[in-house]
Amino acid sequence: MRADLLAQLNGERAARRAAILVTDIADGAQRLVREAEIGADPLGAVLGRHLASGKSGLVEVDGRSLFLTVQVPPVRLVVIGAVHISQAMAPMAAGLDLALTVIDPRTAFASPDRFPDVDLVAEWPDAALGGRVPPLDRYCALAALTHDPKIDDPALAAALAAECFYVGALGSRKTHAARVARLTEAGFGPAQIGRIRAPIGLPIGAVSPAEIALAVLAEIVTALRRAPRPEAA
Amino acid sequence: MLSTDTDILTAAESWRRDGRAVALATVIETWGSAPRPVGSHLVVDEAGTFLGSVSGGCVEGAVITEAIEVIAAGAPRILEFGVADETAWRAGLSCGGRIRVFVERVD
Lengths: 233, 107
Fold this sequence. Notes:
By secondary structure, chain A is an alpha/beta fold. Chain A contains 8 helices and 10 strands. In chain A, 38% of the residues are buried. Chain B contains 2 helices and 5 strands. Chain B starts with a helix and ends with a strand. Chain B is globular and about 40 Å long. The interface between A and B is medium-sized, with 23 and 23 residues.
């Protein structure tokens, strides 16, 4: 491996951007394909599939064996609201390798007793994001669960601006219509606002907090594994 | 890719920058109950110092020996390890799996 390619691969990793190192195992010839370059690459289709699965592996192309070292940033899940659903979600998210952060300025909700071993931030979302919590990016999912526009709206605005791969908001269709009006007023267009999943979660008839948590996580996995990724900026 | 494997790539870069001769071993294929997934890395320097794992311990010794030879020779190698074979002087995997490992020098 060329030391400069290794440094570039590590650099992409540090910047939380995906990249694939393509190695011809017959002679060791290598090249690095950054996420933004995959669409235009001759191997674009196969690289895209490996990027979506997040798995490294061997592929045969024109009689040559190529090993794809797939590097995808760890996926973060930011939940707004230290509510019952979030409590149920914490152990499930851990099992799915989602790095969970729960943000809620209401200290009565955001108490460590209710969220043992969870990265819990008792601050307003706009203060927390980019402060105590790293800024949102395309490898983040955001679920707004407080029902309170004062808490949810700034987080949703930040998630849309950061092009999070998943943005969901709890609330009825009526609640969401009011939310759409507020976000439109704040300058977001219909395409951006349309990315918000509301009502939140896959329609599995969820009733209990744990069931709603499951529906939300299933929707996040679907967005991560099946949906085409937005073009990299 | 597991985060520990990227830590290994970071180590490979910093070892190289420190002027050490470095080889990188990567699991490229597995069959059966292989202990470490495809994409797992092991980094080795010319003194045999290593970090990471390609098999959970079963064949690391053999991989390190080959990696030191790759550091000297320069050309990459593909190693294959299968079930432990008592009649041959070869490292094997007691779990019954098989793995292929790509070993390359960092230049």
